[in-house]
Amino acid sequence: MSQQHENTNRSLGETIEEIMNRRMSRRDLIKGAVGVTSAAMLGALGLRATNVTAAPTSALRFTPVTPTAPTFDDVVVPEGYYARTLIRWGEPLSVRAPAHNVWEQTPQAQAEQVGYNCDFVGFLPLPFGSNVSDHGLLFISHEYTNPELMFPNYDFNAPTRNQVDVELAAHGVSVVEIRRAYDGSWSYVRDSQYNRRITGETPIRISGPAAGHEWLKTSEDPTGTVVRGTLNNCSGGKTPWGTVLTAEENFHQYFGNLSKLDSSDPRVAVHKRYGIPAETTELQWEAFHARFDVAQEPNEVFRFGWMVEVDPYDPTFTPVKRTALGRFRHEAATIGIAKKGQVVAYSGDDQQFEYIYKFITKGTYNAKDRKANIGILDEGTLYVAKFNDDGSGVWMPLVYGQGPLTAANGFHSQADVLINTRKAADLLGATKMDRPEDIEPNPVNKKIYIALTNNSARGTEGKPGVDAANPRAKNRTGHVIELTEAGDDYASLTFTWEMLLLCGLPSDESTYFAGYDKSKVSPIACPDNVTFDNAGNLWISTDGAANAIKYNDGFFVVPVSGKERGHVQQFFSSVAGSEVCGPEFTPDNRTVFLAIQHPGEGGTFESPISTWPDRVGLPRPSVLTIQAFDSRVIGS
Ligand code: FEO
Ligand code: CA
Ligand code: CA
């Protein structure tokens, strides 16, 4: 038994099964003991589920791959499938853009080439509104840079201006047109009119309630409505009107020298709540750009940490930061349309003990006029989640003037609430989660799946202890919660929730796979990005398995209905030092795109631990495609 396990359930004197059973009986009391409705609950009681759902059958028939050791530097797919690299860091996105040359990198060249560390991948069919699976736009976000892998002889103590500016240009987003040929092979269109880079320097509009706020004004932008760039674009979500929401996640790390700001300044407490570094940052961009120095430009950091809307179908579109969705370390934002037509966006704040949010628009979705929806995310209500131990939950409004969100607590407007979303959520007593990553509605069963990647600080000294929604102390392997909105309506303000997976090695007693036979599941740790196939199966990519369970990260599928519910099967294993992102299916489910982020992290340019995918020189973050040799639906 591991130290970790001794410190988890044993400290409660209960096994996970006992906790689930105990919670079951509480729920039965609440529901009058008549409503045993989910396979997870049956599973927790060791019962077989039948007729649980009318969803299409999962029909998964591939042989799961064997996990690989963290030093193993190749991708693995099931028998009958093949993986190909579609596009890599540095590939030119126009005819005039130069081929990538690691020895002669410039910000100008990088701004016309694919950025670094691909995370979110969205496939948008061409033309808009079609359902084609062989032609479309690929929207790729570039979360961060690894200068030690990008540049020869990089010195963390003395980065150069050129290196810093190349890194700024390697952040952001790439939009690229792609096609599948008759032989099945995918390639990108170098001279496409749609190809576009958005970088850490691209002008971006700020809209919604916080636009123009005093704290969003800087010496460069006295209006508080236009900002240079988007940073740390992690995951995201596609909207039904064909735009993409890209998330600014760990934006705090680019802004240094908070300790030089006068401690009586009211902005200091807000910056501290968001983790702005007290001294020099690791990347030291502030040495060359005053806007990253909080002592010189105390407000620039307020202009980051938002959801950014981009229209990939319009290369001239100015991206927009939608402040109504709140400011925090957004992992993503994913969309469901409520029964009455409101647009609902789910979003997590990815840090230990942070919260889960959703935003409900005031207006309703217009399916007939896509452009009419651009702006709908500027008006509405932001909510934060409270998970009760009895399996119920409530969405609490973050509205200025309601409850504690008043001048007595430093809030003078809705803009104040949005700029300091974290404090507002603190005051409402929201549930502190184990690092919320992707949160996404399953279009087949309308339930929402929440990846909580890990939280090694849970239950440690001075930190919050376990609760039913975060039931393991020193949670290194993460879990997945299944949330059901009341009436299956995304606009509902109450919900119920179930534990779907407590990840880890199946031999670890603290794991739980919706009651499925543990001897038949693949080991999985640190769930990060999720998507669904057309049958409603949940697909999960991971980030951090190498640390947590000593295997490379991968891509997994788990049915969420029927007797296969909880049967986690590994479909893909990644390369040394990488995490797996995307993931994204074509509409026909016959291709899946995966982003292989930071391959070879842990090595350096001079001493690489990975050479994927080129097998010469340095590793390159890349998007790959996986298809079957006989073109069957992935996993079938
Ligand atoms: Fe960028 Fe939360 O992963
Ligand atoms: Ca992520
Ligand atoms: Ca991640």
From TrEMBL:
Pfam families in the record: PhoX
Keyword set, alphabetical order: Membrane, Transmembrane, Transmembrane helix
Highest taxon in the source lineage: Bacteria
InterPro entries linked to this entry: PhoX, TAT_signal
Bilayer-crossing regions: 29-47
Keyword Transmembrane: yes
Protein's name in the database: Twin-arginine translocation pathway signal
